[in-house]
Design goal:
Elements: H1 2-16, H2 24-30, H3 35-46, H4 50-68, H5 73-79, H6 85-96, E1 130-135, E2 138-148, H7 153-167, H8 170-176, E3 183-191, E4 196-204, E5 215-219, E6 222-230, H9 236-251, E7 254-256, E8 261-265, E9 277-286
Antiparallel strand pairs: 1-6, 2-4, 2-5, 3-4, 3-8, 6-9, 7-9, 8-9
Keywords: DNA-binding, Transcription, Transcription regulation
Protein name: AraC family transcriptional regulator
GO molecular function, one term: DNA-binding transcription factor activity
Length: about 290
């Protein structure tokens, strides 16, 4: 559980630097992770992004400062990293529902987002089956969308994308001529700065001509940790993702290599059955 202890240290670092020029890269270094892996791990474990957590904590403390001090709004805005009163007021209203200047005028309800704590637990009651696979680069063809991880937007838009692709016959077309892996859901082209990613429903290229309205992408060569997910969709696979990040990564000598993640769906079997099997592929490196 050393990994979770390092994550807890990074939270302490964030808390001590909420009133300074806080760097996510520094927090990631304290957690002994790349910035990408740190952001991904943080989001999977807590349900919020690092940037959202920092924003919420700063605005929680800013509300307390407005309530219990005589400091000017502009001074408090600068203290918590906002360059203008306008940007501070906009962020403050979004969280607390009122303008900063109104806090001292009357009694208002304010939001409080407490400091996060990682509770280290020894689970181990359910085994996690996985295998390590070395795979050369390969081509996939399919269709994709660009989405954001802010406020869980990707968790809403990707299921809609799957529903549309099943209804319009696109997935059926993929299944006719897909490679040995099956139908693939690929998260790729991550932009940590803008917190965006691309998601493709695709398959290994197994035909000479790519349909005009499809795209062709390359999945880079990688060492993959492959996890089996058993259960009815769509609930089973998110549970496996949670366990990978909350149990497997913190207790092994691996970290996320960054880059493309795959969900591999078998074309055989009923996806609503309790014994339906699919896989999660994550690129890894040894620490």
């Amino acid at each position: 559980m050393e990994g979770l202890e390092r994550l807890a240290d990074s939270i302490d670092f964030i808390e001590k630097n909420l009133e300074s020029n806080l760097s996510i890269e520094e927090a990631a270094t304290i957690a002994c992770m790349s910035k990408f892996h740190y952001q991904r791990m943080f989001s999977m474990l807590t349900g919020v992004t690092v940037a959202d957590y920092i924003r919420r904590r700063r605005l929680t403390l800013a509300a307390q400062a407005l309530t219990h001090s005589n400091s000017k709004v502009i001074d408090i805005a600068l203290r918590f990293g906002y360059e203008t009163p306008e940007s501070f007021s906009k962020a403050f209203r979004k969280i607390h529902g009122i303008n900063p200047s109104a806090v001292r005028q009357d009694s208002h309800q304010l939001k409080a987002f407490p400091k996060l704590f990682f509770q280290i637990q020894l689970k181990g009651d359910v085994e996690m089956d996985y295998r390590i696979v070395e795979k050369d680069a390969f081509q996939v063809i399919g269709k994709g969308i660009r989405t954001s991880i802010v406020n869980g937007q990707n968790h809403r838009e990707i299921p809609v994308f799957w529903d549309e692709s099943n209804r319009n016959g696109f997935v059926d077309e993929l299944e006719k001529d897909c490679g040995s892996m099956g139908v693939i859901g690929a998260c790729m082209e991550f932009d940590a700065t803008q917190e965006k990613l691309s998601y493709y429903i695709c398959a290994e290229k197994n035909r000479q001509e790519t349909p005009a309205d499809w795209e062709e992408k390359e999945i880079p060569a990688a060492t993959w940790a492959v996890f089996e997910s058993v259960g009815a969709m769509p609930d089973a696979i998110p549970q496996t993702w949670d366990r990978v990040f909350s149990e497997w990564f913190p207790s092994t000598g691996y970290e996320h290599a960054g880059g493309t993640e795959l969900e591999v769906y078998s074309t055989k079997g009923d996806t609503t059955a309790e014994d339906y099997r699919c896989e999660i592929w994550i690129p890894i490196v040894k620490k």
